[in-house]
């Protein structure tokens, strides 16, 4: 006789990969009236009209087919031009660019394309919630490295070096960073480049927040000398152009890596949606002005939230990119989870406890400022009341 529980069919790895801790806070908040959310990880803007219009027009014209597995050649050409002009780094549209359904897909496929069972992939933490599970699904071993408040949450060459073993295959870097808002300058990247060359490992560089860089220029990792041949660069349209629902992104990598990723992508996804690809072409050709307008708006909110958090006693370094503040709650004596749960129940403000992004995030809170200035101001007032009540 079998045990009849359908759970017996589920793969073992699933029991080791918990659901995203972020969802829990949205579930807790749903049903509470008058909640303000600093929990979301997506732009509060609607996709600019000219991008939506290009998509609508394409549908009217009946453009509803599959595309090349690599993505529309016009889109790959626009991406190639962008990297040539902005980063002085050439990617061949025919063989080094793969258009995919979100950085989420690109990340999963990139890791699967390079990971043999038991390979170690270094994941600096606090980290975006998908990295560790994606490594585990691919049969690899995630190896955490702690990035620290005192280093403004940058990955240092020394910390990376210490985590490398003979089994290390790659490190996943992400700047501007979710959840810390930290970014890396050219010098920081050059120090990382030296270590990855010395130890002959790959870099998966998630640069989806590139356009949301507030001070100075973003340097892409593959533009660092010698790095193009060992980098899988991931970028997309979700954050820069407020296109999260379009599910569109791309991977840039050397030909053998793109070939390997392509074999997974063509079987699991076939191609990214054509309508989204048409929207992405419009975004790259004519979307700069609107995108800059949104970035200026995030920047104003960034100043508001950082000064507000510091004023009420939640120490917060100045994040240089993305749309997250990452204040410390250690001085309150509460854990991140206690703080986030009590703040939600007592003042109806949703934030995400730092430990959701790995144990290194304990003692911190992720506060998204992808919400209106009024909402941020109101959330800060409520947080002040909460701090006074402790
Ligand atoms: C660091 C990071 N990478 C990737 C993603 C997923 O992006 P996409 O919408 O392109 O799948 C997110 C979304 O929040 C993110 O924060």
Automatic annotation (TrEMBL):
Q: Which UniProt keywords apply?
A: Aminotransferase, Pyridoxal phosphate, Transferase
Carries keyword Transmembrane? no
Q: Which InterPro entries match?
A: Aminotransferase_I/II_large (IPR004839), AspAT/PAT-like (IPR050596), NHTrfase_class1_PyrdxlP-BS (IPR004838), PyrdxlP-dep_Trfase (IPR015424), PyrdxlP-dep_Trfase_major (IPR015421), PyrdxlP-dep_Trfase_small (IPR015422)
Per UniProt, subunit arrangement is: Homodimer.
Its recorded name reads Aminotransferase
**Family affiliation:** Belongs to the class-I pyridoxal-phosphate-dependent aminotransferase family.
Domain named Aminotransferase class I/classII large: residues: 34-382
Molecular function terms, GO-annotated: pyridoxal phosphate binding; transaminase activity
User: What broad class of enzyme is this?
Assistant: transferase
What are the names of the required cofactors?
Answer: pyridoxal 5'-phosphate
Its Enzyme Commission number(s) read 2.6.1.-
Q: Do you know which CDD domains this protein is assigned to? A: AAT_like
Which GO annotations describe the biological process of this protein? amino acid metabolic process
| Record bears the keyword Transferase | yes
SUPFAM superfamilies, per database record: PLP-dependent transferases
The source organism is Methanomethylovorans hollandica (strain DSM 15978 / NBRC 107637 / DMS1)
């Amino acid at each position: 006789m079998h045990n009849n529980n359908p759970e017996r069919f589920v793969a073992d790895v699933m029991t080791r990969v918990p659901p995203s801790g972020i969802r829990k806070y949205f579930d807790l908040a749903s049903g509470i009236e008058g909640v303000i959310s600093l929990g979301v990880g997506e732009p509060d803007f609607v996709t600019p009209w000219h991008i939506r219009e290009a998509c609508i027009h394409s549908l009217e014209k009946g453009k509803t087919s599959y595309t090349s597995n690599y993505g529309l050649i016009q889109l790959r050409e626009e991406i190639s031009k962008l990297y040539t002009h902005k980063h002085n780094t050439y990617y061949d549209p025919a063989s080094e660019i793969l258009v995919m359904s979100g950085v989420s897909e690109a990340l999963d496929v990139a890791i699967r394309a390079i990971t043999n069972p038991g390979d170690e992939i270094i994941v600096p933490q606090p980290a975006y919630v998908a990295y560790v599970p994606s490594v585990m699904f691919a049969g690899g071993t995630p190896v955490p490295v702690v990035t620290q408040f005192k280093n403004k949450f940058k990955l240092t060459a020394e910390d990376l070096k210490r985590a490398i073993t003979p089994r290390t295959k790659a490190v996943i870097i992400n700047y501007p960073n979710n959840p810390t808002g930290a970014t890396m300058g050219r010098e920081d990247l050059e120090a990382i480049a030296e270590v990855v060359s010395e130890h002959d490992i790959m870099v998966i560089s998630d640069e989806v927040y590139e356009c949301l860089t507030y001070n100075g220029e973003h340097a892409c990792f593959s533009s660092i000398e010698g790095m193009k041949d060992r980098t899988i660069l991931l970028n997309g349209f979700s954050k820069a152009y407020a296109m999260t629902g379009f599910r569109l992104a791309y991977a840039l990598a050397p030909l053998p890596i793109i070939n390997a990723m392509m074999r997974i992508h063509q079987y699991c996804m076939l191609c990214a949606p054509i309508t989204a690809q048409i929207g992405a072409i419009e975004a790259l050709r004519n979307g700069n002005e609107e995108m800059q307008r949104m970035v200026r708006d995030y920047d104003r909110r960034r100043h508001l939230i950082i000064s507000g958090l510091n004023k009420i006693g939640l120490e917060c370094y100045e994040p240089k990119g993305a749309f997250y503040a990452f204040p410390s709650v250690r001085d309150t004596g509460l854990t991140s989870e206690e703080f986030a749960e009590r703040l939600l129940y007592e003042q109806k403000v949703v934030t995400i406890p730092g430990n959701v992004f790995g144990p290194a995030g304990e003692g911190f809170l992720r506060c998204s400022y992808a919400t209106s200035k009024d909402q941020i101001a109101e959330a800060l007032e409520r947080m002040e009341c909460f701090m006074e009540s402790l």
